């Protein structure tokens, strides 16, 4: 019982279920694609949550960092013929460094410069992706293959399993990190800058740390994206993707680990379900509109996010019962 | 005073035309409990904010004897560095992290004491675990000392103001300070709680070997705990001395004229 209460164990159980589900149900290719896409976006959202949910900063350019990771990974695997895991590591480290440098400039200034700087970065980098055709294939995009790991050629299902394994590892690491002294410093900074400063937290240093870490997650997600879909083009990594990450983090539950997964799943599955209804069947921008509406609804009416609904419901009924009992006593 | 932990010299700061602190000097001896008093708006909190670099004073010098015995001018350091040298503070309006537990709030107070990196912490390396355990242990000790142990796992936001004031006081001790500066620790406490606080402050000084600089409106508390007191008004020093000297000082009496001793303001 108590071992099941450990978050790390819960994340592993989640991972096992996520892996077994498509295998046992012999899911169609399109279902695996949907699940993989949720897993990949959840990794980026997890990182976004470190930034927004724990340190209270906003980025509008995380999609661009995902793109950076994707192209880096494809380039090193296909053109430099580096092993997959080395390319994945580079796809994490290089965006981390780029994020660090961008943060170094944007976070010196107080206020919401990070949002503006990252938005600018996203616009510029989209152009760069298009121009650097040797590296990215330009507007027509670039292709790569499923990864080959230790001589073993992966297929669609095995890449999906890899995505889930990496997601679960990152969930556990993020959880440990958030419960650590560094994580507490981030939370303190978000809730009371005065308290954080008085306790020795340098706002600049910790904002920079949170931002660079979150760009690293985006890079990893990008690498997995391109090795699952085996194709990428510059327009994938624009503001729409960045806003999706923001929306998923908010809807799932800011500052929670599971919320990243739940929020992404909600945003990916709901449009698919609604599209099956005759009313919405031929409504093209449905997902986009829905995302916008969902953000507003959650921010206004349920800022704690989807992940907290079961817990809140439980407490509501539990508390009410207790209150009634107390009335009886009195 | 030969062995002072903090020496404030000619400190001044103005906001627009208002001189909030005006050429103020005072000195706090090692392990001394020192009071800074004055009517509302006298500039007491502003003095705290200058010492801890939340504000940058227009002029003056603040010499602090650090943990390692070095003499430094605090005004040459950034706000987040101050605690590293052994000076921790509380806030008049309580700055805690409401949605964390009380023990986690204390652990934030230990931030300056952590040596492991974020990476070591994420991978839960043995060193990171040991460090976390050590500080958790210290936090429980401090909560025990201050009679808050049973509240360790309560969410800070759910606790009454009086408890939060004490938690904030407890938090300062996590940094192994040489000097703690506390802004109106008795605000929101009733008479018995205030008496208990007086005992606690003395106990803290004896047990943790730190000096205490306190701003407080409750004259009973100030007179019974402080060894020396500095009274200010309109940012200027009125008098400095032992509690008895301060009580008998004409200017101090005038500044407080028409005010009851226990006219504590929140
Ligand atoms: N950041 C600021 N900007 C402008 N004026 C300020 C600022 N901080 C303090 N003051 C002014 O400086 C004066 C001293 O304020 P301060 O808060 O230090 O008083 P205090 O002695 O702590 O009073 P109290 O007992 O009510 O807490 C007041 O007139 C206040 O309005
Ligand atoms: Mg004040």
TrEMBL record, chain A:
Residues that span the membrane, as ranges: 9-25, 31-52, 59-78, 84-106, 113-130, 157-178, 208-226, 246-267, 279-302
Membrane association type: Multi-pass membrane protein
A matching Pfam family: BPD_transp_2
Compartments, as annotated in UniProt: Cell membrane
InterPro entries: ABC_transp_permease, LivM-like
Keywords noted in UniProt: Cell membrane, Membrane, Transmembrane, Transmembrane helix
Top-level taxon of the source organism: Bacteria
Keyword Ligase in record: no
Annotated protein name in UniProt: Branched-chain amino acid ABC transporter permease
Lineage of producing organism: Bacteria, Bacillati, Bacillota, Clostridia, Eubacteriales
From TrEMBL, chain B:
Record keyword Nucleotide-binding present: yes
Residue runs in coiled coils: none
Residues covered by the ABC transporter domain: 6-259
PROSITE patterns: ABC_TRANSPORTER_2 (PS50893)
PANTHER family associated with the record: ABC TRANSPORTER ATP-BINDING PROTEIN, CONSERVED COMPONENT OF ABC TRANSPORTER FOR NATURAL AMINO ACIDS-RELATED
Key words of the record: ATP-binding, Nucleotide-binding, Transport
Name of the protein in question: ABC transporter ATP-binding protein
Molecular-function GO terms, alphabetical: ATP binding
Transcription as UniProt keyword: no
Alphabetized InterPro entries for the sequence: AAA+_ATPase, ABC_AA/LPS_Transport, ABC_transporter-like_ATP-bd, BCA_ABC_TP_C, P-loop_NTPase
One Pfam family linked to the record: ABC_tran
């Amino acid at each position: 019982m108590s071992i099941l209460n450990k978050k790390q164990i819960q994340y592993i159980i989640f991972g096992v279920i996520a892996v077994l589900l498509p295998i046992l149900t012999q899911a169609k290719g399109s279902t695996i694609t949907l699940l993989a896409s949720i897993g990949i976006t959840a990794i980026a959202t997890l990182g976004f949550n470190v930034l927004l949910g724990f340190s209270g900063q906003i980025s509008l350019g995380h999609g661009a960092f995902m793109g950076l990771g994707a192209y880096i990974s494809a380039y090193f695997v296909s053109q430099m013929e580096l092993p997959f895991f080395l390319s994945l590591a580079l796809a994490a480290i290089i965006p981390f460094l780029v994020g660090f440098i961008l943060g170094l400039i944007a976070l010196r200034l107080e206020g919401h410069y990070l949002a503006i700087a990252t938005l600018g970065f996203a616009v510029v980098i989209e152009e760069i992706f298009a121009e650097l055709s040797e590296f990215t294939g330009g507007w027509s995009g670039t292709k790569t293959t499923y990864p080959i790991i230790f001589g073993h050629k992966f297929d669609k299902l095995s890449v999906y399993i890899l995505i889930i394994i990496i997601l679960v590892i990152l969930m556990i690491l993020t959880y440990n990190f958030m419960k650590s002294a560094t994580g507490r410093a981030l939370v303190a900074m978000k809730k009371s800058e005065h308290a954080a400063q008085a306790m020795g937290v340098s706002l600049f240093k910790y904002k920079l740390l949170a931002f660079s870490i979150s760009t690293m997650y985006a890079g990893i997600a990008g690498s997995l994206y391109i090795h699952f879909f085996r194709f990428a083009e510059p327009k994938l990594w624009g503001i729409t993707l960045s806003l999706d990450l923001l929306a998923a983090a908010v809807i799932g539950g800011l500052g929670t680990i599971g919320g990243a997964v739940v929020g992404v799943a909600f945003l990916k599955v709901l449009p698919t379900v609604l599209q099956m209804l005759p009313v919405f069947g031929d409504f093209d921008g449905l997902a986009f509109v829905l995302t916008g509406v969902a953000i507003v609804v959650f921010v206004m009416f349920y800022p704690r996010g989807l992940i907290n609904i079961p817990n809140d419901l439980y407490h509501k009924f539990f508390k009410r019962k207790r209150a009634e009992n107390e009335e009886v006593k009195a | 005073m030969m062995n002072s932990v903090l020496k404030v010299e000619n400190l001044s700061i103005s906001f627009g035309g208002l001189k909030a602190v005006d050429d103020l000097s005072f000195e706090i001896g090692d392990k001394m409990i020192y009071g800074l008093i004055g009517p509302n708006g006298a500039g007491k909190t502003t003095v705290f904010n200058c010492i801890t670099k939340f504000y940058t004073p227009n002029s003056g010098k603040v010499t602090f004897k650090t943990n390692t015995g070095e003499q430094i001018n605090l005004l040459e350091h950034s706000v987040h560095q101050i605690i590293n040298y052994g000076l921790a503070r509380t806030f008049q309006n309580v700055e805690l992290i409401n949605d964390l537990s009380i023990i986690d709030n204390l652990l934030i107070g230990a931030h300056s004491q952590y040596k492991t990196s974020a990476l070591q912490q994420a991978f839960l390396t043995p060193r990171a675990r040991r460090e976390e355990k050590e500080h958790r242990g210290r936090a429980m000790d401090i909560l025990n000392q201050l009679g808050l142990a049973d509240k360790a796992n309560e969410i800070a936001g759910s606790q009454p103001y009086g408890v939060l004031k004490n938690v904030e006081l407890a938090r300062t001790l996590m940094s192994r300070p040489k000097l703690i500066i506390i802004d109106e620790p008795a605000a929101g406490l009733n008479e018995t709680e205030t008496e208990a606080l007086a005992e606690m402050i003395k106990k803290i000084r004896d047990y943790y070997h730190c000096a205490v600089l306190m701003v407080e409106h409750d004259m009973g508390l100030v007179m019974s705990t402080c060894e020396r007191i500095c009274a200010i008004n309109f940012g200027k020093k009125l008098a400095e001395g032992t509690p008895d000297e301060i009580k008998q000082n004409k200017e101090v009496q005038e500044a407080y004229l028409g005010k009851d001793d226990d006219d504590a303001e929140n």
